[in-house]
């Protein structure tokens, strides 16, 4: 009696998990699935490590973030080369030169 019940619960659990796996793949592929130029790529978050000469651009959507390897940083960002990773940094974090001069 226990074996058929356990088998039934196992099958029900497996069927319950199928839609979750499909949804994760669609979200990952649609938003962060472009792994061109990546050394390490995740289906969920896109690139986390780029090839040596590329910049890692991380865009945020709500609490999620997705990485993409780019040759040039997009408008509003500048490239910072490092020993381990090259990143695109936002220009809005820089202090305004006019404020620094007291104008």
TrEMBL record:
Signal peptide region: 1-17
Domain of life the protein comes from: Eukaryota
InterPro entries assigned: Growth_fac_rcpt_cys_sf, R-spondin, Rspo_Fu-CRD_dom
Cross-referenced Gene3D superfamilies: Hormone Receptor, Insulin-like Growth Factor Receptor 1, Chain A, domain 2
UniProt domain R-spondin Fu-CRD: residue ranges: 35-90
Database matches in Pfam families: Furin-like_2
Keywords: Glycoprotein, Signal
PANTHER family linked to this entry: NEUROHYPOPHYSIAL HORMONES, N-TERMINAL DOMAIN CONTAINING PROTEIN, R-SPONDIN-4
Protein name according to UniProt: R-spondin-4-like
Species annotation: Leptonychotes weddellii
Organism phylogeny: Eukaryota, Metazoa, Chordata, Craniata, Vertebrata
This protein's encoding gene: LOC102728864
């Amino acid at each position: 009696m226990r074996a058929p019940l356990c088998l039934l619960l196992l099958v029900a659990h497996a069927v319950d998990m199928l839609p979750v796996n499909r949804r994760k793949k669609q979200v990952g592929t649609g938003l962060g699935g472009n792994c061109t130029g990546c050394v390490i790529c995740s289906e969920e978050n896109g690139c986390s490590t780029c090839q040596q000469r590329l910049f890692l651009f991380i865009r945020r959507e709500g609490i999620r973030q997705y990485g993409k390897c780019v040759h040039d940083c997009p408008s509003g960002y500048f490239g910072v080369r490092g020993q381990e990773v090259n990143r695109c940094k936002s220009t809005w974090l820089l202090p305004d030169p006019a404020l620094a001069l007291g104008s």
